[in-house]
Design goal:
CATH architecture of the largest domain: Alpha-Beta Barrel
Order of helices and strands: HHHEHEHEHE
Largest sheet: 4 strands, parallel
CATH topology of the largest domain: TIM Barrel
Number of strands: 4
CATH class of the largest domain: Alpha Beta
Oligomer: single chain
Strand content: 5-15%
CATH superfamily of the largest domain: Aldolase class I
Bound molecules: flavin mononucleotide
């Protein structure tokens, strides 16, 4: 939920990023190998729905008994609302800072989220976890677990 619109990837534009020959995104047939950052961004933006609201989460909840994990929570208010909406877990995340440079950090938001959730659902965290001490800090602040993105890549 932390990316209702796609960020402007200035570094990709400056570096004239293109998909390497022979590598095309499987889910985006309109962006073949060799596509530029702008072409990729255009295709991706078409697939993002910025109108998602809490009502849509309630609708999703009504459709399934599967556990729902809500990713991208950064405030106490949203955390409390997510817990009330019946999610099994939230991921405190600012998308690895990839969409909005001056976003608050996930680790900075964690204490208020833990306090607001008050044990009603699990709280996970991602963004900037690079070494064991990062994991320990997150767990010490109350996260159940951490996730990693770019270190895997
Ligand atoms: C190449 C790439 C693609 C990503 N795609 C998505 C995505 O489709 N949906 C999403 O919620 N987060 C996406 N993310 C964000 C990650 O899920 C995660 O929040 C972030 O990478 C965590 O920060 P870290 O890379 O510092 O560990 C993506 C991250 C990367 C690097």
């Amino acid at each position: 939920m932390d990316a209702p619109v796609r960020g402007r990837r200035l570094r990709d534009l400056r570096n004239a990023f293109t998909l390497p020959p022979g590598l095309a995104p499987a889910n985006f047939p309109a962006t073949p190998a060799g596509s530029s950052a702008t072409e990729l961004a255009t295709q991706l933006a078409r697939r993002i729905d910025p109108t998602f609201t809490w009502n849509d989460l309630a609708w999703l909840r009504s459709l399934t008994r599967l556990p729902i994990v809500l990713k991208g929570v950064l405030t106490a208010e949203d955390a409390a609302r997510a817990a009330e909406a019946g999610v099994v877990a939230i991921v405190v995340s600012n998308h690895g800072g990839r969409h909005l440079d001056p976003s608050v950090t996930a680790i900075g938001a964690l204490p208020e989220v833990i306090s607001a959730v008050a044990g009603r659902c699990e709280v996970l965290l991602d963004g900037g976890i690079r070494r064991g001490t990062d994991v320990l800090v997150a767990l010490a602040l109350g996260a159940r677990a951490v996730l990693v993105g770019r270190p895997v890549l």
